[in-house]
């Protein structure tokens, strides 16, 4: 383990009977890093977080926090603070009482308790809420108290298990900003579980995308968005998700992708290694397809007929059929496009993602 690692996970296995939930999982999280575990329900992200927290006993492997092997340590001995999806506040206690309860149980001096509670209240901007009881708080305020309860423990590592999923869209956006500001202020290591890709992309220094107990890709939000490691990651990230075409890479001369009678030049595409011929998936994000005059200057252009138009305010999603596939295109919200219109569309090879057909790995 390197000295810069805050949390180190080595060859972690977890099984429930014959069911393997986590499989030989390795992960290094740097000091002060904000890492997001992202994936669909059942991928193992919350299970991994609970293993780090000590709430689940692992089947194999090791967990180190700040250089210490805590694989079999009690949760209270791991130097972590955890925020759950459920607020789990004591209803009979004030906000101040909820924040100080754990510190009183730990028999900290009164002055130290007061100092920590005051600091947490200032950081989370809830000094005026300290005398209120949970029933008098909004959902967002209650979640802020739950975060504050972890904050007063003065730990090195914070674990968040889908803390915003019970809130409405506006509150989620507001609290997301609060959590990002909190990390910038404290510089603590934070590990955050979510199924919401917007939360992941906006909060994370790095994202670990999980599927079936395995990490599919561990990288910055920018790299995951622009260079997904495989077709699953490409499809999971982005809303609307990436459009895909099945065809073949041809390396006779300049490399091309051929599908449904069309030949798409790949001269601007950045291959992972030397291009090899063979069946492949080609992916292009809806927002990387251009229309009208911009399409004329593209590496590949084609005419298509508009089937469905979905106005979304700042942008519009257009559905149409291209090269035998129904695809989505994201265009400006002020565009006047109607079903039945003929649309000239185009895209550049540099914007494409290519995946080998069998392994679905990026090529």
From TrEMBL:
SUPFAM superfamilies: MOP-like, P-loop containing nucleoside triphosphate hydrolases. GO terms for biological process: carbohydrate transport. Keywords: ATP-binding, Nucleotide-binding, Transport. InterPro entries: AAA+_ATPase, ABC_transporter-like_ATP-bd, ABC_transporter-like_CS, ABC_transpr_MalK-like, ABC_transpr_MalK/UgpC-like, Mo/tungstate-bd_C_term_dom, NA-bd_OB-fold, P-loop_NTPase. SMART domains: AAA. One of its GO terms (cellular component) is ATP-binding cassette (ABC) transporter complex, substrate-binding subunit-containing. Residues 7-237 form the ABC transporter domain. One of its GO terms (molecular function) is ATP hydrolysis activity. Pfam families: ABC_tran (PF00005), TOBE_2 (PF08402). CDD domains: ABC_MalK_N (cd03301). The keyword Amino-acid biosynthesis does not apply. Belongs to the ABC transporter superfamily. This is ABC transporter ATP-binding protein. The lineage of its organism: Bacteria, Pseudomonadati, Pseudomonadota, Alphaproteobacteria, Rhodobacterales.
């Amino acid at each position: 383990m390197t000295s810069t690692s805050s949390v180190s996970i080595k060859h972690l296995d977890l099984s429930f009977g014959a069911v393997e939930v986590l499989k030989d999982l390795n992960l290094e999280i740097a000091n002060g890093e904000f890492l997001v575990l992202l994936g669909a329900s059942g991928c193992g992200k919350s299970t991994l977080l609970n293993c780090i927290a000590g709430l689940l006993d692992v089947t194999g492997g090791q967990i180190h926090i700040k250089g210490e092997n805590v694989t079999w340590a009690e949760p209270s001995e791991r130097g972590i603070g955890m925020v759950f999806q459920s607020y789990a506040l004591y209803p009979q206690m004030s906000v101040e009482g909820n924040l100080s309860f754990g510190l009183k149980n730990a028999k900290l001096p009164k002055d130290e308790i007061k100092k920590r509670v005051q600091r947490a209240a200032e950081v989370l901007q809830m000094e005026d809420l300290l005398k209120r009881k949970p029933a008098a708080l909004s959902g967002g305020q209650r979640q802020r108290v739950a975060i504050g309860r972890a904050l007063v423990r003065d730990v090195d590592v914070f674990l968040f298990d889908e803390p915003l999923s019970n809130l409405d869209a506006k509150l989620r956006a507001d609290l997301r900003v609060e959590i990002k500001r909190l990390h910038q202020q404290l510089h603590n290591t934070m590990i955050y579980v979510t199924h919401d890709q917007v939360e992941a992309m906006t909060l994370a220094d790095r994202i670990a995308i999980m599927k079936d107990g395995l990490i599919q890709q561990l990288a910055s939000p920018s790299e995951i968005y622009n260079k997904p490691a495989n077709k699953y990651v490409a499809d999971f990230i982005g809303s609307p998700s990436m459009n895909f075409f099945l065809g073949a890479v041809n390396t006779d001369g300049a490399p091309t992708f051929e599908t449904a009678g069309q030949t798409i030049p790949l001269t601007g595409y950045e291959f992972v290694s030397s291009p090899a011929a063979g069946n492949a998936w080609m992916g292009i994000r809806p927002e990387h397809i251009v229309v009208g005059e911009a399409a004329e200057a593209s590496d590949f252009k084609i005419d298509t007929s508009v089937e469905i138009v979905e106005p979304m305010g700042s942008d519009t999603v257009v559905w149409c059929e291209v090269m035998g596939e129904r695809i989505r295109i994201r265009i400006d919200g002020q565009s006047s496009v109607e079903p039945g219109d003929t649309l000239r569309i185009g895209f550049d090879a540099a914007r494409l993602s290519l995946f080998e057909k069998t392994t679905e790995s990026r090529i």
